[in-house]
Every structure is written in structure tokens, then in C-alpha cells.
């Protein structure tokens, strides 16, 4: 008997239900986290998640904006390209390999990850291009996954790697590539273990759409959005600082740390203020000052005590 059931609940209790824009190729069981691969696209399945104290007192960005305005260069360079070009992407079956300096390396199936206790967390998201959103993610703490593989004492960093499928991701095909693939990212181990750092498997009450990083992505809300690597297939613990795709491409523009800092401008964008997507208005009415660490300074500033945040951008 098929596990698929059309969604019967609103997209979330935070915002009105919108017509889901991205067609999907995987089905998630609402309660158990078991998946059934399908050869045909399907609407996202509802996810059950507990409410979390991690919320912000700001309006949530409409779902239609979050699912249609984003950067995912594997599908193209334009903000609408991920939505337009990701329908053929197949996020099941899926596994995430966790290895390196760990006592118990393991390859996790998506079914196992979806069976972990899930939370809905409403986080600010700040792009280095000076636009921002407020997004209700569904996921679990990255630390809970790291605990399962038992990091060794000499592990200092966590490296992430995304999928390479040029036949399904048109941004990875052709002679002239915007970036080297696979997309890679990294965190210090203490950053990765911070309670705010999560692996997201859903958004707006449902499984992630392809254009937003299905089936699993990183969310670190105090950092610029490019740190939030999508469609993760490998996580490796290491004793050396791992490469970061944008830092490799332009080290004078994109630092490894990428903490949101209104006092350190990007060469092309002032970081002093941001444009909140989805709020409308004229003449900059939806612009607002950018907060240090994207408003999470109280929780994370201690991670960088004594560091020169201008040099370690």
C-alpha cells in the first residue's frame, strides 16, 4: 500500500498555506519518517515536528518567496533558476556518509534521519547579497548526528560536501562552470556543536523542496546564507580547516567564518542594512539595519572571544 498521502494541514501554523511551487520526487511519511522512492514528481509530504523555543518576533517570509527566490548555483545563476530547473532532481534514495576522525563512521539513510526527533525553528536568514528572510525550518541539531559517530579528540573541524549530478542539476553541466563541484563547506567543531546549528529536512511544515536543498541541508543562522550547504551527501570530521567553495573562489570577498557583521562590507554590498524579502513597500520601506551575528550575538559571540572579526570574516 502506498505511503503517500496528500497534505491535509496548512503549510504551517505561522503563515497561510500557499500552493506549493516546487514539484518533488520523494515522499515522506508524516509520522514515522519512512520514505518511498517514486519515479514521478509528487507534492511534498507533511512532517510532524515539535515546536521549539527558537523563534524570532518577526513576520515569517511568505512561502512563495522562500521557495522561488534563492541561490542554488547547481541549478543556475538566477534567483528563479532553482525553482525552474530542479524538477528532475531525485532526492531519494539518499544517504549521508559521516566519516573522518570519528570512532563510529556510518552512512545514514534518509529514513533514519527523518526518524530523529524533529523541531520547527523559526530563524532569520541573511544572504551576503544584503537580502534577508525569516524561515520556519524543520530539522534536528547537527550535534545530535555528530554524537552518533563519536568524534575523536583530535577532531577540530567539520567538512560538508554536496551531490554532483550534472544530468539532474543543469548548473553543473556544460563547458563553463560558475563554481568547482562539488560544493563544499566547513565549520569549526564548536560551531557545528552549537545548539543553533541544525540539519534541516523540511520547511513550512513539509519536506524540503528541491530548490531549497532537498533532502537535507545545513542551517547556521548567525552566518551568511552561502554557509548553508544544500543536498548534503558527506560530513567529515578533520583536524584541519576544510575548504569552502566561495572562499576558494574569491578569498578576498568570502571568508571561512562568514559571520554576519554589519561593520565588514563585501566589496559589492554594504552589510550595514538588508532588504527583507516579501514585505513589499516603496523607497526602501522594507530595509532594516543588519544585526551582529544576524541577531544571535547573545548565543554565539562567545565562540569568537578574542578573535579579530574583521580579519576573520
Structure write-up:
This protein is of the alpha+beta class and 313 residues long. Helices cover 11% and strands 26% of the residues. It is built from 7 helices and 15 strands. The strands form 3 sheets. Strands 3, 6, 7, 10, 11, 12, 14 and 15 form an 8-stranded mixed β-sheet that branches. The chain has a 5-stranded mixed β-sheet with strand order 5-4-13-8-9. Strands 1-2 form a two-stranded antiparallel ribbon. β6 (119-126) and β7 (131-141) form a beta hairpin.
Give the SSE layout.
Blueprint: E1 24-28, E2 35-42, E3 50-51, H1 63-66, H2 81-85, E4 95-100, E5 106-109, H3 110-114, E6 119-126, E7 131-141, H4 142-149, E8 157-162, E9 184-188, H5 189-192, E10 198-203, E11 206-207, E12 217-219, E13 232-238, H6 245-249, E14 273-276, E15 287-289, H7 297-300
Parallel strand pairs: 3-6, 4-13, 7-14
Antiparallel strand pairs: 1-2, 4-5, 6-7, 7-10, 8-9, 8-13, 10-11, 10-12, 14-15
Q: Mind describing the biggest β-sheet?
A: 8 strands, mixed
Helix content: 10-25%
Counting DSSP H or I runs of 4 or more residues, the number of helices is 7
Strand content: 25-35%
Structural class from helices and strands? Answer: alpha+beta
Alpha carbon gyration radius: 19 Å
Query: Which ranges are low-confidence, i.e. pLDDT below 50, for 5 or more consecutive residues?
Result: 1-43
Order of helices and strands: EEEHHEEHEEHEEHEEEEHEEH
Q: Please tell me the overall pLDDT.
A: 88
What's the end-to-end separation, in Å? 52 Å
Shape: globular
Number of strands: 15
Amino acid at each position: 500500500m502506498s505511503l503517500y498521502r496528500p497534505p491535509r494541514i496548512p503549510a504551517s501554523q505561522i503563515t497561510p498555506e500557499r500552493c506549493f511551487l516546487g514539484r518533488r520526487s520523494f515522499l515522506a511519511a508524516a509520522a514515522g519518517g519512512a520514505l518511498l522512492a517514486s519515479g514521478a514528481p509528487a507534492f511534498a509530504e507533511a512532517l510532524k515536528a515539535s515546536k521549539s523555543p527558537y523563534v524570532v518576533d518577526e513576520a515569517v517570509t511568505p512561502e512563495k518567496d522562500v521557495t522561488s527566490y534563492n541561490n542554488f548555483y547547481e541549478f543556475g545563476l538566477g534567483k528563479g533558476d532553482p525553482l525552474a530547473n530542479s524538477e528532475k532532481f531525485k532526492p531519494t534514495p539518499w544517504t549521508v556518509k559521516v566519516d573522518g576522525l570519528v570512532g563510529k563512521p556510518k552512512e545514514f539513510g534518509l529514513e533514519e534521519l527523518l526518524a530523529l526527533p524533529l523541531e520547527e525553528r523559526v530563524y532569520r536568514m541573511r544572504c551576503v547579497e544584503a537580502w534577508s528572510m525569516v524561515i520556519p525550518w524543520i530539522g534536528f541539531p547537527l550535534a545530535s548526528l555528530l554524537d552518533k559517530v563519536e568524534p575523536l579528540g583530535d577532531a577540530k573541524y567539520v567538512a560538508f560536501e554536496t551531490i554532483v549530478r550534472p544530468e539532474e542539476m543543469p548548473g553543473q553541466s556544460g563547458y563553463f562552470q560558475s563554481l568547482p563541484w562539488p560544493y563544499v563547506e566547513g565549520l569549526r567543531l564548536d560551531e557545528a556543536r552549537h545548539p543553533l546549528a541544525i540539519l534541516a529536512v523540511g520547511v513550512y511544515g513539509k519536506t524540503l523542496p528541491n530548490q531549497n536543498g532537498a533532502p537535507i541541508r545545513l542551517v547556521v543562522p548567525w552566518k551568511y546564507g552561502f554557509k548553508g550547504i544544500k543536498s548534503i551527501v558527506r560530513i567529515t570530521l578533520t583536524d584541519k580547516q576544510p575548504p569552502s567553495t566561495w572562499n576558494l573562489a574569491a578569498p578576498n570577498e568570502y571568508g571561512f567564518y562568514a559571520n554576519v557583521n554589519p561593520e565588514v562590507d563585501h566589496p559589492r554590498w554594504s552589510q550595514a542594512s538588508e532588504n527583507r524579502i516579501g514585505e513589499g513597500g516603496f523607497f526602501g520601506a522594507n530595509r532594516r539595519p543588519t544585526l551582529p551575528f544576524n541577531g544571535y550575538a547573545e548565543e554565539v559571540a562567545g565562540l569568537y572571544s578574542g578573535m579579530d572579526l574583521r580579519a576573520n570574516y
